[in-house]
Amino acid sequence: MKKQLILLISSITLIVLSLTTVVFAWFTIVDKTQEIFIYSGTLGINAQLFKGDSTDEIETISFDNVLPGDLYYFRLVLESTGTINGNLRVTFNFESHESLSELVEVKGIINNTTNIDIPTSGIREVINTKLNAMSTLTFTFNVKFNESIENMVELREFNIKSINIDLVQI
Amino acid sequence: MTIKKRSIILISSILLLIVSISFVYAAFSINETKGDIKFKLGKIDYTLNGSFINDSLIVPGQNLVNEEFKLVNNSNIDTQIRFKISLQLFNGDNTYIDLLSSLEYLESFNLNQRFKLIDGYYYYYNNDLETNEEYEVVIKSNEPNIILFNELILDGRLVKNDYSNNKVKLVVNFEAKQMGSMKWEDFKEVVIG
User: Which of A86, A128, B97, B132 could pair covalently with A167 via S-S, beta carbons 3.0-4.6 A apart?
Assistant: First the structure.
């Protein structure tokens, strides 16, 4: 009987102590530190493709009955919408009949300053440069069908299958 | 903990790590795709139908056209055309020399009246009804047939006996070009008949 009493008192004491600790712990958790704000940067790009001076954006476009000597202008406007600088990489993916790739010239100019001759087969990197936050880069390029194209390539297709734009944080 | 359980936990952890890395990477790079831009070349396609007579002997005054010469247009672009006829004299060794290019020795040449002779070539022309000015016609892709001529007779008074017993051949050279940047002056000659 005495043993049971000792055990009971011990148990009650332990329970009370435990509760006190937990309650104490609850009160210490409530005591918080000063707020620390961490702002993450954002990376964003808005890409628009236009034909010539038109303001109507194009996604896909097809030209039929193209003639030797024909020249087509395009504008690719790349606007950084993020808050951090990024590295901009633009690649052209050409898919054309092999006999045409040597007879078509693609030339471009970045922001009216840097001229680029673009080989017209496979995947080609045309831009690899820093793009500052909230800035715009305009890439104007033209596609010219050589006047020496002869009838043997008539009805063949020259295709810029895709223009891939990658912006990666620096 | 069994080896099997440990393996499952390890693989799960690795997968979780890969997924986490992917999400972190996605947060710091962005990709867009534009295109495609497709160009399909046009086609110039004419068929020249017609034939000269195939007699072993020909004489002035004889119509040398067996079947009317006519163009069949299968082009899908706008074009301009011209042709010339030449009478060539056999010069030995399978070579021929041009005798006539402007057909000044013809007694009769029943040519489509819309063709105009300029420097040895016949060009497809028309008259502007308002200004009465002549202009070279642009042949639309949907204009299917153009008759060239159906009669060609040599003038005996001019040809005389100079070429009797000689081997001659008549050749029609037809050329078509796209509208736009190409000019006749830049044209390369392609003989098809």
Answer: A86
Q: Is the pLDDT of residue B189 over 60?
A: no
- Closest chain A C-alpha to B155 CA, distance in angstroms: 39
A chain contacts of residue B77, beta-carbon cutoff 8 Å? 65, 67
- Residues in chain A predicted with pLDDT less than 50, given as ranges, are none
The model's pTM? 0.64
* Pairing mode of beta strands B79-90, B121-127: antiparallel
Contacts of B41 in chain A (CB under 8 A): 65-67, 100, 145, 149, 153-158
Q: Residue B36: is the preceding peptide bond cis (ω within 30°)?
A: yes
- d(CA B130, CA B65) in angstroms, rounded, equals 36
Task: Report the mean per-residue pLDDT for chain A.
Answer: 86
Q: Which two tokens stand for residue A84?
A: 């951090």
Q: What residue type is assigned to position B48 of the chain?
A: L
Other Cβ atoms closer than 10 A to A126: 19
| B181: DSSP letter | S
Strand partners, A131: A86
Q: Distance (Å, rounded) from C-alpha B114 to C-alpha B80? A: 13
Rounded to 5 degrees, what angle do the CA atoms B178, B187, A104 make? 60
Closest CA to A81 of A44, A49, A39: A44
